[in-house]
Write the structure tokens for this entry.
Amino acid sequence: QVQLVESGGGLVQAGGSLKLSCAASGGTFRSYVMGWFRQAPGKERDFVAAISWSDGNTDYADSVKGRFTISRDGVKNTVYLQMNSLKPEDTAVYYCAASFRLGQHQNEYAYWGQGTQVTVSS
């Protein structure tokens, strides 16, 4: 059983930056792909970014390419999402998740964190 705990959310002005963290434990999480999703009020949960623990391959949603960067730290067992040039439309609850393969569909992800709120003011 993989456990995921997000942190780092908060309130930031448009154009600012935030760095989210996802601490992983339990199971063989290093054989997984780690992803970030987000869900705004009244909207579906959308893919943001993903990274493979084993080879570092990454994938991004078009809406965040060039602004967000996903990375991993094998010593700290933590995945990060560096978010720059934030926009009000980035406001959402951000979730960390684990999957067996690199993908953008939430149904492919078996384990989820509790989420962390990101609010971007205009």
In short: The mean pLDDT is 95. The chain has no helices and eleven strands. The first strand starts at residue 3 and ends at 7.
